[in-house]
Structures are given as structure tokens and as C-alpha cells.
Amino acid sequence: MKDGIVYVTETRLNKLKDTLNVIIHRLGKGEIKVTARFLASIIGQIISMQGAMGPVVRLRKRSMYDCLLYRASWNAPVLLNSKALDEIVFWKENVAILNGRDLSIVEQYSCIVYSDASGIGFGGYAVSISDTEVMGSWNSVESLKSSTWRELEAVYRVLLSLLVTLQGETIKWYTDNQNIVYIIKQGSKKGDLQLIAIKIANVCKLNNIVLLPQWVPREENVKADQISKSVDCDDWGIDQKCIQF
Question: How many CB atoms lie within 10 A of CB 123?
Fold first, then answer.
């Protein structure tokens, strides 16, 4: 630790990089299977770095862990699916960038945002910042999604809509769905929810945003709830340049 920031040592970083290079080399030769023990060693190394890298560790190892569930034994080969391969490449490209976690962030934040979702739309706003109310409507397919999907997607869309305002900020993000807090921090076994969680993490990383999700009782989230029930006739869209990572 230096100046309140926790780091992984260069020795441990290099060990993980070397292990990832081995598996990526195998992938380059067309091999998509590794022993369960070898994959577990990668996951173990990544998990051990959580103190210096934060919630992204739990979020970006779920697919690798899922591959282990199908092992016949620790020495048996397991198939790496496309999502697990994406996680391996992610860690190869970002392990050094993610190294370093400011412990003071736990107590300090510079902005507060509330969001909510209803059966017809989503809404949110930044506290004490003018012209930051965001609203949008679900299409016919989205309106049939689970409430958890809608609440999580609301976080994502409000985040993108306020991106210019929120860049570089540490944000306390309030939601009245406790599942959302868990998923943003640790991901989800459900593929559609995991995808949104990863998109949120990518946007935050790209724009130097620290997101601190916090559950709040529904009666304390009235304004965002009301906004989510206001129908916006304009189509809502995403500028793809904002979310490349």
C-alpha cells in the first residue's frame, strides 16, 4: 500500500500475466480446452487480487468459473466457451491497468444519483445538478423483461445519458432493488443481467467513474419512481462511441 492505495505486487502481476499468456498461446493454436486445475489456478490468482482491484474481480470471472462446474475431475479438460475466452482476454489486457485501489473511495463520493424503473419506462436524476432528469420508455419486448432486468438496464441508460456530467466522478448510486446492488458489484449467473453489468463496468472504466451502488427504501426513491412512470415519446438510443472499451 502506498498513499492509501492498495497494489498487487509486480511478482504476482507477472505470474498472472505469464499464466494468461500460456492459455492465450494455446488459443492461438486452436485449443479451447484446458485442465480444470489450470483454469482454477487462473481464477484463484484473479480472486486474490480483489483487494487491489475491487468488484470487477467478481464480475469478470463468472464465466470461467461456470466452465469449472462441468469438470469430470480436476485433471480432466474443460471447454472454454466464448464468454470465458472474453474474460481471459479482458484480464490479459487490463490486469495492469486495474492494479491499484484507493481505500478512501469507500467513504468519499462526489455525486449522488437515483434511478428506478417501471413497467413502461425508466428514470433517474443527479442530486443538486440542474437539468439531469432522464426518462425513457421500454419497447414492447423490454416491457416484458423481469423487474430486475429493467432496474439494471435503467442504471445503464441513466448512466449513459448523464455521461458528460458524471465523467471522472465517484458516484453514490441509489436504487430500491437490492439485487441491483449485488449484480453491479459481483455480476449475475443470468446471461442477460451479466451482460448489462459488464457494460456498466466498461462505461465506468472508460470514463474514469467509480460507481458505489446503494440500496434505498422505495419510499425514499419517489422522484425517480415518478420519472420512470412518465412516458417519453422520443426514442431512446445509445451512441456506440460512448461504450467502446
Answer: 25
Report residue 29's pLDDT band, with 50, 70 and 90 as the boundaries: confident
Instruction: Pick 109-242's CATH classification: 3.30.420.10, 3.30.70.270, 3.40.50.2000, 3.40.50.300.
Output: 3.30.420.10
Cell of 234: 422520443
* pTM for the full predicted model: 0.81
Position of cell 492459455?
A: 23
First-last CA distance in the chain: 28
Domain extents for the chain? Answer: 5-102, 109-242
CA gyration radius for the chain?
19
Q: Give the pLDDT mean for 29-39.
A: 92
5-102, which class in CATH?
Answer: alpha beta
d(CA 60, CA 3): 27
Please list the residues that pair with 115 across neighbouring strands: 124
134-137 sheet: strands from edge to edge: 134-137, 121-126, 111-117, 170-175, 210-215
